[in-house]
Amino acid sequence: MSDIAVSALDGARAKGIVAVHEMGLQGMVSVRADLGEAQTARAIADVMGAAMPDPRRIAPGQGGAVAWMSPDELLILCPHAEAEAKAASLAEKLAGMHHLALNLSDARAMFEITGDEGALRDVLSKITPADLSAERLAPGEMRRTRLQQVPGALWFETPTSARIICFRSVAQYVFDLLAMAAKPGGEVGYH
Amino acid sequence: MSTRLATGGRLIDRSHHVNFRFNGKTMRGHAGDTLASALLANGQTIMGRSFKYHRPRGVMTSGAEEPNALVNLGEGARLEPNQRATTTEVFDGLTARSQNHWPSLEWDIGEVNVLAARFLPAGFYYKTFIHPRPAWKHVFEPFIRQSAGLGQAPKTRDVDRYEHFYAHVDVVIAGGGIAGLQAALEAGRAGARVLLCEQTAHWGGRAPVDGVRIDGVPAEDWIKETVEALEKMDNVHLRPRCMVAGVYDHGYITAYERVADHAPGTDAPRHRLWRIRTGQVIAATGALERPLSFPGNDKPGVMLASAARDYVVNYGVSVGDRTVIVTNNDDAYRTALAIKAAGLDVPCIVDARPDADGPLVQEARALGIPVKTGMGIANVKGLRGVVSVQLCRQAGEGAVVENVVCDAVAMSGGWSPVVHLWSHCGGKLTWDADQAFFRPDHARPPTNQDGAGFVVCAGAADGALHAADTLRNASLMARKALEVCGKSAPDALVSQATAVAESPMAPIWVMPQGAGPAKRAKMWLDFQNDVKVSDVQLAAREGYESVEHTKRYTTLGMATDQGKLSNINGLAILAEALGEDIPRVGTTTFRPPYTPISMGAIGGEARDEIFQPLRRTPIHGWHEDNNAYWEPVGHWRRPYCFAKHGESHADAVAREINATRGSLGLLDASTLGKIIVKGPDAGRFMDMLYTNMMSSLKPGRCRYGLMCSENGFLSDDGVVARIDDDTFLCHTTTGGADRIHAHMEDWLQCEWWDWQVYTANVTEQWAQIAVVGPKARAVLEKLGSDLDLGNDALPFMAWAEGRIGGFDARVFRISFSGELSFEVAVPASQGRAFWDALHAAGAEFGATAYGTEALHVMRAEKGFIMIGDETDGTVIPQDLGLDWAISKKKDDYLGKRAQQRSHMTDPTRWKLVGLETLDGSVLPDGSYAIADGDNANGQRNVQGRVTSTYHSPTLNRGIAMGLVLHGPDRMGEILDFNTTKPVARGEAPGTVKARIVSPVFYDPEGEKQNV
Asked: Across the interface, do B679 and A128 touch by the CB < 8 Å criterion?
């Protein structure tokens, strides 16, 4: 379906103090299950080649990542075309235990924000109340938080590259927020 | 007259000139000037008019506490009223206008109010404008609003941008004076995360002006070194032009950064509101000088002694050639020395104390300045400026003993610590009788969630006014705050500050102490709101004993400066009038913000496109391109209709309905809520959520269901599709998606935590399109599908998953229009392409996009209820004739018990019926069916009301639904409904007759949807 499927903002970009990029189609599978069960860990290992992430961590896996969302919820990141199959495969491997595995790729939008480390954290601090100091949110940890008036999740892939996930319907709002926060002249010099 | 001195001015850059305009006149200042210092340098001593009496006023202070020098700053899209000239940094091209004057600042017609002042005492409004009643609205209020009031409200859109910034620290330090810097050093060395905010553009506060020396060098040098040391610390962040505005619970702090006020037109945001979480707050906010209450203390040319000193030392501006100092303390002598050092005259120092012999006094005497002890000011001569002051004995009633020619008066009534931040969250104060001020009561700090104090005051704010004590206190208090954070600073030598010693001040609240009524009526307490000593005394006589009541009765401290100068003086007068001690009278409540902050900063970036998040479906762009008339539905915007060129909305709705009923309509239904409920206990959970039986639904089938709150009221409705044995898909209303998901989680997490059920809100995963009308099947078959869409394979209320025209689709045979209808869900990423494909394939059938109004009319024609129209939180399913959707077999469901209560089973509850006007007109929405007689309130009795009403293009007449007393038993009866339209000009509104009918107006047998 790659020819007819488009992401919320179809790869929109903005440049200012930092660069903002809507990343296009991104596979996401939501998994709810008892994360302490061996069967869950095995299913994650089989399908994603990743270890069960600790609370608030995002663990890299084959072709994607596994993020801890809540005590009984994970988010699988994978190529968009593979999400449906990954959801089915997880459901199969979790059969017999209470679980929910859903392809929710299209319910969300994902952004990449890149720039100097301090500027990146400054810009994001204009829209989220989360503590973004380097020691409180280092690469490898995901924060579920608020992006001004909407919910979102964010993490740093590297010190100079952050990712944001929000709901698809508010992708334009989040893009506009980020673009506004990144507007030249708005440098803060705090982080 | 004030003027610029030839030398001096530590904050200005004499090599850099700036031009600005005041009341249309071009003036010249220097970089580093405030608007107030630049105006004084240009000889402009009158800067505004007072609120009530329109008295000419000059600048009173040099800082944030300024009550008088308020201006309309900027023009057009950058106009902002009530800006304090004392905190406005001057820049090239600045324009300002004075406020509250007419026709001009120099000559104001309202000044006659001064003559009428004896008729405008405290509580004047309450006493005077009582009768006749209508006069308040039509005569008094317009007059008062014209005569009172401050700046002009801007009339054009603000062109600047604003933003918020979130920060998390261990310690916020408010104030970058020597106490704040010392506290920052301690906190920085302790490794705490520190944010140091200073409201001005300069570090060090007033220590350099006051001649303080620290560690043997001038304060200025120590400040420079300390700021450099702090800048080197990675864990310390310094923020000038950033005022800590408010302290709130849980260590939440707001700070107001004026990023670009001094440089408008750059691409920087104008203001930035810092929203900070901190462990501790160190309020190093200093102290404010108090005025003295003597007759004429509000005249231009009279100002605080500290301000006169600041203008000389900081800006190289003299406030007059001959400045009389009037004081009750030693500190004001520093002003005399500074003025003398600038080569100007101090004719005398009027000291209300019987004796004065401290080192500063001796220094003044040594310079030949006459010191007149035990004296006060009986009157200030001069109308628009000071010409002379008349001196009297402080102990007496004000008999003039001497006239001193002068053109400025510098007064000091002592100092009050700035305890605002300590008090915002409930910190208590204690009265320090020796120094005559309130200071923080360390035993009763504002407390955080742990019950521990989270604010300390440091330096002068803690009452340590003298420089020698300030630094020691700041270190001590900072260490106290750090200890609470679990941090400790390594022991280091505390810098030693030295300043000339001072002898004790004397509390002087009225000057002269025996002044009679005429003199007391000229002693201003609150300069901005024109409250005088006589007003507070009158309030006390009239029985206002509480300081909070007195404040509101007299308006003392209610102006934009919030009583920063008047607070202590006013309550001392009140205490005296009541014969009470000052601490027993207490203070009014200090509330955030410390000084007014801009609405723009509070709003932050939330304006224009990002004022609110706008939720967009994958098809939103098409709607925009096709002239959708939007209807807000929650944060979504849905097309109400798509008007073609020259078409009215009503015509568009009729066209959309006719096209749908005639052939093919397409609706973007993506906003409808979709919630997955899955697990071994899902069926049981569904049976509790819905009033009807859901657990018996077969996979592949759909069922309409109702959800009630536990109080029995109808909350939401929608079609449930069973996906498999363990899984249900619940469709909710657009507005219900998030609310119902939360409702489900509430019950699962709080009540039925042991049930094995997971839910997921998948609303946005799918684009859902209703394909509606006689040609609905034809268009889908034309697109091609691996599904059998025939009525046998996919009957009404069935669903199937497959591919349609190359799209991944779920097809639901459900209908809200009464027509053959397929709701097709495709992944959101494919939604727009699918919508386009349907239009392309449907072109031969006249495929027509329809909006929410057509949807509403078509469902009303079928008698389907709409949540929010037929329901309003007081309606139960039984009211709507939905008994068929309420299971009698189930033991329980949410709302069942409530629906059995006597009020819910009362046969007189109004019930749903259809309504048809006899004349075919559309009933007014919300109209009541009137009944005989009046109720106890003299209002007409009613027997029903309209819940939704439309013009039906299908039937070409008005149709409506309503709730009517015994309605279903009264078919055919005719009721009168009220209208708002008068029968004839000048007559009372008439009524309109409507017949009670079945709510199903169209295809009652349901033949059209079952083909």
From this structure: no
Average the pLDDT over B663-685 and give the result: 98
* Coil, helix or strand at residue B226: helix
pTM for the full predicted model: 0.94
Encode pLDDT of B701-731 as tens digits: 999 999 999 999 999 999 999 999 999 999 9
CB contact under 8 A, B613 and A149: yes
Nearest to B48 by CA among B117, B1, B111, B105: B105
Do A68 and A31 share a structural domain? yes
By CA distance, what is B234's nearest residue in A? A191
Residue A133 tokens, joined: 């100091």
Asked if A169 lies within 8 A of B237 by C-beta distance, the reply is no
Q: Which residues of chain A are under the pLDDT cut of 70?
A: 1-2
Burial degree of A96 (CB within 10 A; 0-12, 13-18, 19+): exposed
In the predicted structure, residue B45 carries a pLDDT above the cut 80: yes
pLDDT bracket for residue B880 (50, 70, 90) = very high
Q: Using CB atoms, which residue from B164, B609, B762 is nearest to A176?
A: B609
CA dihedral B37, B39, B43, B49 (to 10 degrees): -110
Enter the tokens of residue B734.
């657009």
Question: For the domain with range B907-1011, which CATH number is right: 3.40.50.10090, 3.30.430.20, 3.40.50.720, 2.40.30.110?
Answer: 2.40.30.110
Check pLDDT > 70 for residue B3. Answer: yes
Sign for the CA dihedral angle at B991, B997, B1003, B1006 comes to positive
Architecture per CATH, B291-413: 3-Layer(bba) Sandwich (3.50)
Is 80 exceeded by the pLDDT of residue B814?
yes
pLDDT attached to residue A1: 46
Residue with tokens 């093919």: B664
**Residue B562 reports pLDDT greater than 50:** yes
Contacts of A138-147 spanning 24+ positions with Cβ under 8 A: A140/A57, A140/A58, A141/A56, A141/A57, A141/A58, A142/A56, A142/A57, A142/A58, A142/A67, A142/A68, A142/A69, A143/A56, A144/A69, A147/A174, A147/A177
CB contact under 8 A, A150 and B613: yes
How big is chain B by its Cα radius of gyration, in Å?
38
Q: Are the CB atoms for B626 and B835 separated by under 8 Å?
A: no
| Other beta carbons within 10 Å of B550 | 29
What are the structural domain ranges in chain B? 1-156, 162-288+416-498, 291-413, 513-585, 673-764, 907-1011
CA distance linking residue B351 with residue B362, whole number of Å: 13
Q: Are residues A112 and A101 in the same domain?
A: no
Residue B517, token pair as written in the block? 């009524």
Q: What local confidence, expressed as pLDDT, does residue B350 receive?
A: 98
CA distance B326 to B289: 13
Calpha distance B962→B13 (Å, rounded): 76
| Site from A4, A25, A69, A175 to mutate, B interface, most B CB atoms within 10 angstroms | A4
Question: Under an 8 A CB cutoff, do B829 and A188 touch?
Answer: no
Domain check: are A46 and A97 in the same one?
yes
Q: Please give the residue of chain B at the shortest CA–CA distance from A7.
A: B829
Is the distance from CB of B62 to CB of B144 less than 8 angstroms? Answer: no
Closest-CA residue of B relative to A186 is: B268
**Within its chain, how far is the Cα of A39 from the centroid?**
25
CATH, domain range B162-288+416-498? 3.50.50.60
Supply the pLDDT for residue B384.
87
Minimum distance, in Å, between the CA of residue B727 and any CA atom of chain A:
9
A106–B829 CB contact, under 8 Å = yes
Q: Is A100 in Cβ contact with B760 (below 8 Å)? A: yes
- Mutation target for A interface from B234, B829, B832: give the one with most A CBs within 10 A: B829
